[in-house]
Write a structure and sequence with these properties.
Blueprint (H helix, E strand, L loop, with lengths): L7 E16 L2 E6 L2 E24 L22 E22 L4 E18 L5 E21 L2 E12 L14 E12 L7
Length: 196
């Protein structure tokens, strides 16, 4: 068959609001000949999204190779509600990082972060429901830099972090946070006193 059936037109509205607060004091200290740059941080993130999607049926196309598409703008009726609800996610984070300078050639970076995630969603569809969940996640980072001359450095590092899984594309939107792991190794060279 060359017909196309079950065509629908979707209309979705989203009202999204984000609030974020971050505090990061930094201290420079020494332990003997070793320099430390200590960073302590606190972060609060609040995300809210109210969403609604409705659908209207479109006429079938009898032959996709010779389509005759009727103008239906005046007759569209958005009578089917695909989903209607809202989701809210709150994230609290405490973290610390130490950038250590052993010498002019050797440097290291160590960090640790704790997050608490609280997510809830309200589904106002035919069978209304409310879901919520909370998760605690800890991540960290570590890196090492060798800088034989001021213009060239070699580095390696690894980190693991977490992020709120925030979506309006599902009626069950309260999901566990995403996790990402990153590994890196490389070389950096600058020219013209760091301008390139």
């Amino acid at each position: 068959s060359t017909a196309m059936t079950g065509r629908r037109l979707r209309r979705q509205t989203d009202d999204a609001r984000d609030y974020q607060y971050q505090l990061e004091p930094v201290w420079s200290v020494r332990t003997g000949s070793i320099k430390h740059e200590l960073l302590l941080g606190f972060e609060y993130l609040n995300q809210f999204n109210a969403f609604k999607r409705v659908e209207a049926d479109l006429p079938n196309i009898d032959d996709v190779f010779h389509p005759v598409i009727r103008d239906t703008k005046q007759g569209l009726v958005f009578s089917r509600r695909a989903f209607d609800g809202h989701i809210q996610a709150q994230q609290f984070g405490l973290y610390a990082q130490d950038f250590i300078e052993f010498s002019e050639q050797w440097k290291a970076r160590l960090g640790l972060r704790w997050n608490e995630f609280a997510t809830s969603d309200l589904n106002r569809d035919a069978t209304p429901s409310r879901r919520s969940r909370s998760d605690d996640k800890t991540g960290g980072q570590a890196g090492l830099v060798y800088q034989p001359i001021p213009a060239t450095s070699f580095y390696a590092g690894a980190s693991r972090g977490h992020l709120t899984n925030f979506t309006s594309e599902s009626s069950g939107a309260a999901r566990p946070p995403e996790t990402a792991t990153q590994w890196e190794i490389g070389k950096k060279t600058t020219f013209l006193d760091g301008r390139i």
